[in-house]
Amino acid sequence: MLHRFRFFPALLAVIVVLPGCALLHWPRWGKKKPPRAEAKVLRLVGTVTLVSEEPTFVLIDNGSLPPPAAGTVLTINAAPGGTPVELKVTAIRKPPFVVADIVKGTPKKGDQVFQ
């Protein structure tokens, strides 16, 4: 019977001490983790179908892809060493086509447009 009473204080000591060990691995309260660097993922919008005579706008065929909202800035990645093309979507659209104004650069027919 005396043996049982020796077991309980030892068990109680283990129950009290073990949770304290778990706190040693808890994140430090004062330190914040640095923000993650997020990769910029380009989403394909469509391809340039038509470039106007005076290069002021382009017609983009986006097929069954969802059309971008008016005012969205789109890009066409240029060849290495070239300047990228920037486009701005207008409110004019006729599915599956979207019209975008040329902000910078010279797009060509068949270029892929990304958001």
Structural write-up:
There is one protein chain. With 115 residues, the protein is an alpha+beta fold. It has a domain at 44-114: Thrombin, subunit H (Beta Barrel). The protein is built from one helix and six strands, in the order αββββββ. The protein has one helix spanning 2-23; strands at 44-51, 57-61, 73-76, 85-94, 97-104, 112-114. A six-stranded antiparallel β-sheet has the order 3-4-5-2-1-6, with no helix packed on it. The longest helix is centred in the N-terminal third of the chain and has 22 residues, at 2-23. It is rod-shaped and about 100 Å long.
The coarse overall form would be rod-shaped
Oligomer: single chain
Helix share, percent: 10-25%
Structural class by helix and strand composition: alpha+beta
CATH topology of the domain at 44-114: Thrombin, subunit H
What series of H and E elements makes up the topology? Answer: HEEEEEE
Strand content: 25-35%
Summarize model confidence as the mean pLDDT.
82
In total, the number of strands is 6
CATH class of the domain at 44-114: Mainly Beta
How many helical elements? 1
CATH architecture term of the domain at 44-114:
Beta Barrel
Distance between the termini: 78 Å
Strand line-up in the sheet with most strands: 3-4-5-2-1-6
